[in-house]
Design a protein that fits this description.
Strand order of the largest sheet: 4-5-3-6-9-10
CATH class of the largest domain: Alpha Beta
Distance between the termini: 33 Å
Number of strands: 15
Low-confidence stretches: none
CATH architecture of the largest domain: 3-Layer(aba) Sandwich
Radius of gyration: 21 Å
Bound molecules: guanosine-5'-triphosphate, magnesium ion
Number of helices: 10
Number of domains: 3
């Protein structure tokens, strides 16, 4: 099947060939991937580009690079079951939240643009660890060169809205900024074209301990009511006990456990995979060679199974235990 690549793709490819730093390569590769038509004919090329992208991210990780303008560029290595990046205007409490629910200690201060670089921290949820990444405000100056990449690489955007300010106005500014990075969120109706990356998000209304703004809340609910939301106070701790579950639900993943024949599954070591994943897809996360050797699996869980033999395409459910047979 022909790939039908566009002139924009070829322009980005030219930039990739001329790129001399990992950052330039990443930007060109992300562009190539986002403008490439999605169909069977481009599957192979897409996979090749993703491999190149992963290599460039590895290179970038070794040290932050200094861009031509003199600003630093960052990449945050994923750790744990998911990478969750905080997005919001200045002073809304992004850093306070990260310091309240993880071991990280980003600077918290009552003035805008306190945070200048990404600060990752791990948040425990039941038997999983999720990585939260505190970043500068989306409107911060001098961050365009890397903030877009960090957000694009995330599994989930945690959109932090300060309840004491107009929520609708904050959301509109955030979406405008995301648009500049060729991103939008999954959920509300939009006019985004096929090059826009759709990101899952969870809205976190922060500062619930203070008097809320009387502006914009009901129009916010009307427009964005379909999105997952939670109210918290990073300062007083209200709602933080429910945050882990809310993030987990918004990620749209499931936990499955693998076991060897005759042994018990280790319920402290889940495989976290997309909802709707099959036996075959879970096998691929364990070892890529395993997929070709896989004959069948046995499943315990989902209510109706008890060691039942299933095929590779069997769709797994939250909490399933599987035994893979090669
Ligand atoms: N009352 C109250 N104050 C909060 C809450 N969360 C954060 N703050 C305060 O809001 C101010 C800004 O908090 P930060 O966490 O630094 O905000 P930020 O979003 O990281 O800001 P930038 O890094 O500048 O983008 C600080 O004075 C915090 O103590 C909250 O839930 N309630
Ligand atoms: Mg901050």
């Amino acid at each position: 099947m022909p790939a039908n690549l566009t002139p924009e793709y070829f322009q980005a490819e030219k930039r990739y060939r001329r790129a001399s730093t990992p950052q330039e390569k990443i930007e060109a590769l992300e562009e190539m991937l986002s403008v490439m038509p999605k169909h069977k004919g481009t599957d192979r090329l897409r996979a090749e580009l993703r491999t190149k992208l992963a290599k460039s991210y590895d290179e970038l990780e070794k040290k932050p690079y200094v861009a031509k303008k003199g600003s630093l560029l960052y990449h945050v290595k994923k750790e744990g079951a998911a990478q969750v990046v905080l997005v919001g205007l200045p002073n809304v409490g992004k850093s306070h939240l990260v310091s309240a629910v993880t071991e990280a200690c980003p600077e918290v201060a009552d003035y805008p643009f306190t945070t200048q670089m990404p600060v990752p921290g791990m948040m425990k949820f039941e038997n999983t660890q999720m990585q939260l990444v505190d970043v500068p405000a989306v409107t911060a100056p001098q961050v365009d060169s890397w903030l877009g990449n960090v957000m694009r690489n995330a599994d989930l955007l945690l959109i932090i809205i300060d309840l004491t300010e107009d929520p609708l106005a904050q959301m509109e500014t955030i979406l405008e900024r995301l648009k500049k990075f060729r991103m939008t969120i999954v959920g509300p109706p939009d006019e985004a074209d096929f090059r826009t990356i759709h990101k899952r998000c969870l809205i976190v209304f922060n500062k619930s301990d203070l008097e809320p703004s009387d502006k914009g809340y009901s129009s916010f609910r009307t427009r964005y009511g379909g999105l997952p939301m939670i109210r918290v106070s990073a300062k007083e701790g209200d709602g933080l006990d429910q945050l882990g579950q809310a993030i987990y639900d918004a990620l749209d993943v499931i936990r499955v456990y693998t076991k060897a024949p005759g042994q018990k599954a280790d319920l402290d070591e889940p495989c976290v995979v997309r909802k709707g994943s099959t036996v075959e897809e879970v096998a691929a996360t364990i070892h890529k060679d395993f997929v070709s050797k896989l004959k069948y699996a046995q499943v315990w869980g989902s209510g109706k199974f008890d060691g039942q033999k299933v095929k590779r395409q069997h769709v797994l459910q939250e909490g399933d235990i599987i035994e893979l047979h090669a």
